[in-house]
Amino acid sequence: MSQAFDQVPALCGPFRQPRQMLAEQFYDGHKSIHDDEMAAGLGLRAGPIEGPTHFSQFDPLLYQLFGQSWFETGCISAHYQNMVVEGEEVRAFVQPPAAGARLARIWAEKRDGTPVLTGTASVGAEVENGERSEIAQRIAKLRAPTQLVIYRDLKVGQQGAVKPERVRMGPDQHMGDHYPFTLADKLRVITEPSPWYTPEGGPGSPWCRAIIPIEMISVLLGSSTGQSGFRSRGPAVGLFAGQQIRLIQGPLFVDHPYELEREIVALSESARTESAWIRTRVYDGVSRALVAEMILNSAVLKASYAAYDSEALALGRQG
User: Fold this and answer.
1) Domain spans of the chain?
2) DSSP assignments along the chain, one per residue
3) How far, rounded to the nearest angstrom, does the alpha carbon of residue 299 sit from its chain's CA centroid?
4) What is the rounded distance in angstroms from the CA atom of residue 187 to the CA atom of residue 179?
5) What is the rounded CA–CA span in Å between residue 284 and residue 295?
6) Are residues 260 and 165 in contact, defined by beta-carbon separation less than 8 angstroms?
């Protein structure tokens, strides 16, 4: 018997007001784009909220769609479209896969309809049979950059200087200058709270211990990025232009040791940015099993590097 309808209606979450947690972020001797003053100097009205903050709004919808598997083998893959500042409202949407497909489409919008991000979500092994995650699609379409200036010292295939980088996230552990807050701080303002994230409620989770929220996996992996040795010319201001987090043997657990290995998988540029696409593999610090990975489009704004034009000219770049 044929189905009554070809496509299931999209799931839609409530409007939320995500909170800014990176106003005090500091790297390479300067504040980041999330600082209001720094943002104003780049023509923004306020420091934007970091992109993966929005991932939490998808978790209830994707848990409804995929069940417990979402936290064990889920993959969220997103291209960030427009920045959000504190006080703005955001709503998440999920379009379930069509019959026979595995990729769900995801997107988020502000109350006025301005797009925030677009992407895909799935569970299980990496999608095959012609289906590709949002980030995989974008990497496949990249063209080699003409002449990088800020990222000119980086190479595709370059691996992190420290192997492995050892990290963990305790409930009250300060995550460093890149992420100047704790998991407990985040849980006080997270848009979608869950007892599974807490020391008190974690033992009641399906894994009998507290799990790290998917948005905070980005923080865990970013907390040691200074050890990577991926050096750019600067000072210059960076931002996340796209990101994929894939759980392989998840979830990741609070106050558990993990080991990270990084590799640059692509370099690219747009009219305004240069990008390093970095894969970070996450290994269990006890069993050494591969448990997750992240691909991050770490972009840097050309206009934020004072010497960009003169160095581009010296390098023989045309246009």
Assistant:
1) 11-125+149-314
2) ---S-SSPPPEE---B-PPP--TT-EETTEE-TTSHHHHHHTT-SSPPPPGGGGHHHHHHHHHHHHTTHHHHHEEEEEEE-S---TT--EEEEEEPPPTT--PEEEEEEETT--EEEEEEEEESSPP-TT---HHHHHHHT----S--STTTT--TT-B-SSSSEEE---TT----TTS-S-HHHHHHH-SS--GGGSTTTGGGSTTSS-B--HHHHHHHHHTTGGGS----SSS--EEEEEEEEEESS---BTT--EEEEEEEEEEEE-SSEEEEEEEEEEEETTT--EEEEEEEEEEEEGGG-TTHHHHHHHTT---
3) 12
4) 14
5) 18
6) yes
**Residue type for 89, please?**
E
Provide the residue-wise pLDDT of the chain in tens; the chain has 319 residues. 455 666 678 999 999 999 988 765 545 554 555 555 554 555 556 567 899 999 999 999 999 999 999 999 999 999 999 999 889 999 999 999 988 888 999 999 999 999 999 999 999 977 666 689 999 999 999 998 988 999 999 999 999 999 999 999 999 999 887 788 899 999 999 999 999 999 999 999 999 999 999 999 999 999 999 899 999 998 888 889 999 999 999 999 999 999 999 999 999 999 999 999 999 999 999 999 999 999 999 999 998 899 999 999 999 865 4
Measured between alpha carbons, how far is 289 from 80 in angstroms, rounded to an integer? Answer: 30
21: tokens are 């947690």
Instruction: Return the CATH number of the domain spanning residue range 11-125+149-314.
Output: 3.10.129.10
